[in-house]
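Note to self: keep these together.
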Amino acid sequence: MKKVLIGVDYNPNSEKVIHKGYDLAKKLGAEVCLIHVLADVGYYGMNYPSFMGYEGYNEMSVDLNVISELKEVARNFIETAANHLNDPSVSTHMADGPTASAILQYAKEWDADMIVLGTHSHSVLEKILMGTTASHILEKTKIPVYLIPIKEKDS
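Structure:
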């Protein structure tokens, strides 16, 4: 194992994923890259005509600067997360689009040997109806995936 790609979402539980993934990578003597995917927000700027009685965003002009600012906030987040590890060799990558596809595409480009992800506690019904990023990645990947269970505080 030479390269470990760690998927990071904007959630405080990501700290656990980052640390466990980083520790694993260091034990393997692997290079580390943190990836954060910003879902495609561009469609909010589309000016569609009224449909199904919904006026949508016709009356509201979405400032493209807002999208740029959102990307900058996300970039700052992932870079701060990497700096938190106090290891200048850790790299970062920002991607746009569907999360699973973006992670798989970059894993291939970067030639990752392993992907590290957190798995959130979703209900069985949620998983059946929409699946999860982790399950989509597991279905399509050809490299090992290390899953870290993330659960909300036990009640």
